[in-house]
């Protein structure tokens, strides 16, 4: 595979806007064929799975893949011959390696692991260049917002989960390590910090663009209104969670600037960018999205899927081909008033709740992603469900991995969670063990990790 420079990736993203639909289809098919051929030749995992796949194939001829199976065959899956999962895991034990390249070649990202042990993603330079080009060329829905961002100094600060090799946190640190002279232009503060600490960091930095998870930014609304937070961003970019219309309006009212979001994941990068109509247009020159049901059968436009299959057309080191992502979407091919011809998605709304505690007459709110980041540190938890019953009473349900003792997992989780809550001023929370397993909603089939029954 010939490397793709950043300038080449930017040009390819620009060119996509100028070519016809038929030319796009041809380019996409060529990229898919090239990726599959490379995977068959260089990945023992795909060589076995595609042994009956000839040169002339349809996308749905390729068997679907999933996180559990790919991670179980990591060394056979990746096409790089000079690295193993054991080496990557050793590399990740040193948190100073966040944002650094293992063997000088690959950035390492992990998913949060909130629904199981995390996936490890390796991104070579070409992969990182395409991801960067997509974000540079397509993040801003309106040119006026981009110009205001530049005019305001182009300073960006994100509120992300730190302490791990997560996409947002690791990407920012990689940029800072590569360009230390830009530390006044972009930074990150931890979503795991108490709100007062986040406010102090933002006040000191004065970002032109504020980024972060919606459930974190929601907690900053009152801080901005009451004057403790004193920043004037020209745009807010959210990600990592669903952004509701209600929260978007509340953020715009509090900060006096437009609020945007995008749809992304560690395995596929930025899957879709938002347009002025608030439609998520798929970056379909670089990624293929298939809405499917539980049996991986396609669902028609206008019907909510049970999940999606994504094919990342630019990651050759670690091919994600028809990879299962448990997001529910609705696909649209009808024309959009913004004139972007790419298909667009409607996303399912947020299901997890913000936890609310009461301490000495004060209300303390904890966002769900902070809970994910805390409990994912307990290796062996396949799935968890934390339920708040009122009066700071928490019930923790755990699905253990094979060979793990449920009681010991609970004790480790209880210790980590208690320490985290105490760092936020919650010292009276009672975390009780439950022998019930995490369950989906009996009617909707939706699964919630964090349930606040006090609301």
Give a written overview of the molecule.
The structure is a single chain. With about 450 residues, the protein is α/β, with parallel strands linked by helices. The protein is built from 14 helices and 21 strands. It has a nine-stranded mixed β-sheet, sandwiched between helices. Strands 20-19-18-21 form a four-stranded mixed β-sheet, covered by helices on one side. Strand 1 (about 100) and strand 2 (about 105-110) form a beta hairpin. It is globular and about 70 Å long.
Secondary structure elements and pairings:
Layout: H1 6-16, H2 21-42, H3 44-49, H4 67-72, H5 74-77, H6 85-92, E1 101-102, E2 106-110, E3 120-123, H7 125-138, H8 143-151, E4 156-160, H9 167-178, E5 186-190, H10 195-205, E6 209-212, H11 214-225, E7 235-238, H12 245-255, E8 259-265, E9 269-274, E10 280-282, E11 287-292, E12 307-312, E13 323-325, E14 329-332, E15 344-347, E16 355-359, E17 362-366, H13 368-375, E18 381-390, E19 393-400, H14 406-423, E20 430-433, E21 450-452
Parallel strand pairs: 4-5, 4-6, 6-7, 7-8, 18-21, 19-20
Antiparallel strand pairs: 1-2, 2-3, 8-9, 9-10, 10-15, 11-12, 12-13, 14-15, 16-17, 18-19
Helix pairs in contact: 1-7, 11-12
Short note summarizing the structure:
Helices cover about 35% and strands about 25% of the residues. The protein has about 450 residues and is an alpha/beta fold.
The CA-CA distance between the termini, in Å, is 53 Å
- What is the structural class? alpha/beta
**Compute the gyration radius: what is it?**
22 Å
Shape: globular
Number of strands: 21
Uncertain residue segments: none
- The oligomeric state of the chains shown is single chain
Indicate the percent of residues in helices: 25-40%
Number of helical segments with 4 or more residues: 14
Strand content: 15-25%
Please tell me the overall pLDDT: 90
**Major sheet: size, sense and barrel closure?**
9 strands, mixed
The order of strands across the largest sheet is 5-4-6-7-8-9-10-15-14
